[in-house]
């Protein structure tokens, strides 16, 4: 595959980073070449279950609807050929319409069964969610934005766009493990066929692009005033110039020297098992500002710089690839595309130029400020 002009790389997301780390070529094909391969119906249905779990959780948090009641109403409406209930009445229910439209390739007749699977998946996790109807709408599906400018090395990272993603749920600041400290919780829902095989360990979360990006975005939001009053009530002030947390030492609001352990972000991945007996299991990790900056610098140096350079390439054959990723999640959708340029994708080859060996992404030396 050869492009006639360079593709546009206007932003990155944690999922882009994960895809690039698995296989540079898959990222290039999807993000730069804009190649979209429809998923098999069974896989699309599994993804739709996850989308509906998110929508049902959002309706519970914001409006207080129980999943089995709202989900069954949606399923029966679709079976009767009617619009989804409540969507036209309240913007908060737009999540239902978005869940429906996000998987248009699925036959309409299969959606009711998808919704009922999502209901059965979501119910075991209700005990972890906030009280029904207690969450402001702006704290669900909330944008998380990250800029490499936070690393303070403009020349090295020039040309890397903003990172963006949506967190499923932001929670109010809570007291840390001792007075005068604070924790900022942020949640993401994950649906999987097997928690035992797919859920990440704490060690993996410490290096996970989504956990790192969301934690950094939360801390940067605090630098811009997010949760300012709540943090002050807990005895913490975030310097808008540096982003560092200072202890408030008296009622007048006087602050002393910054300490990195005063403010942490708790990233919680809530895994929902969709197969066999549905169950939910949370996994979490905490970051201080210094910890998350160090972790993000590794992502920027190892992956974002490589993405910046590969975004300029026109020819797929110039982009490194990794054969170990060909079988991920039931098989890469781009196997035929890679085979068409001579790559040995699991023994599948359609000719073309001799295969190019996989090469590691370049890792330029970046001085620590």
What does this structure look like?
Helices cover 35% and strands 15% of the residues. The protein has twelve helices and eight strands. The strands form two sheets. Strands 1, 2, 3, 4, 7 and 8 form a six-stranded mixed beta sheet that branches. It has a two-stranded antiparallel sheet with strand order 5-6. Helix 4 packs antiparallel against helix 6. The longest helix is centred in the N-terminal third of the chain and has 23 residues, at 41-63. The protein starts with 13 loop residues before the first helix and ends in a 30-residue tail after the last helix. The model is unreliable at 349-369 (pLDDT under 50).
Radius of gyration: 23 Å
N- and C-termini, Cα separation: 40 Å
Largest sheet: 6 strands, mixed
Estimated structural class: alpha+beta
What fraction of residues sit in β-strands?
5-15%
Helical percent range? Answer: 25-40%
Low-confidence stretches: 349-369
Number-wise, the strands total 8
The best one-word shape is globular
SSE topology string: HHHHHHEEEEHHHHEEEEHH
Mean pLDDT level: 88
**Helix count, per DSSP?**
12
Q: Keywords for this structure?
A:
15% strand, 369 residues, globular, alpha+beta
């Amino acid at each position: 595959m050869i492009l006639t002009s360079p593709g546009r790389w206007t932003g990155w997301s944690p999922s882009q980073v994960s895809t690039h780390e698995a296989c540079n070529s898959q990222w290039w094909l999807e993000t730069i070449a804009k190649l979209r391969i429809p998923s098999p119906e069974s896989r699309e249905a599994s993804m739709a279950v996850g989308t509906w779990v998110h929508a049902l959780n959002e309706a519970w948090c914001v409006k207080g609807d129980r999943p089995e009641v709202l989900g069954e109403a949606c399923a029966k409406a679709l079976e009767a050929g009617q619009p989804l209930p409540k969507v036209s009445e309240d913007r908060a229910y737009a999540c239902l319409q978005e869940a429906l439209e996000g998987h248009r390739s699925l036959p309409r007749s299969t959606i009711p069964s998808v919704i009922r699977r999502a209901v059965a998946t979501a119910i075991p996790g209700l005990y972890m969610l906030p009280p029904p109807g207690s969450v402001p709408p702006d704290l669900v599906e909330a944008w998380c934005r990250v800029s490499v400018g936070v690393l303070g090395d403009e020349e090295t990272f020039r040309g890397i766009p903003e990172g963006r993603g949506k967190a499923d749920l932001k929670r109010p600041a809570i007291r840390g493990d001792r007075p005068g400290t604070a924790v900022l919780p942020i949640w993401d829902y994950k649906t999987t066929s097997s928690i035992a095989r797919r859920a990440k360990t704490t060690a993996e979360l410490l290096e996970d692009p989504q956990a790192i990006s969301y934690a950094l975005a939360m801390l940067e939001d605090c630098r811009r005033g997010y949760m300012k009053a709540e943090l002050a009530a807990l005895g913490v002030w975030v310097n808008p110039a540096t982003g560092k947390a200072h202890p408030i030492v008296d009622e007048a609001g006087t602050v002393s020297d910054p300490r990195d352990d005063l403010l942490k972000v708790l990233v919680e991945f809530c895994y929902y098992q969709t197969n066999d007996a549905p169950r939910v299991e949370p996994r979490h990790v905490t970051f201080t500002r210094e910890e998350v900056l160090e972790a993000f610098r590794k992502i920027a140096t190892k992956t974002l710089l490589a993405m910046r350079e590969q975004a300029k390439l026109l020819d797929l054959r110039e982009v490194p690839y990794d054969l170990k990723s060909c079988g991920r999640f039931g098989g890469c959708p781009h196997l035929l595309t890679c085979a068409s340029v001579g790559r040995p994708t699991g023994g599948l080859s359609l000719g073309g130029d001799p295969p190019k060996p996989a090469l590691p992404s370049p890792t330029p030396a970046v001085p620590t400020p």
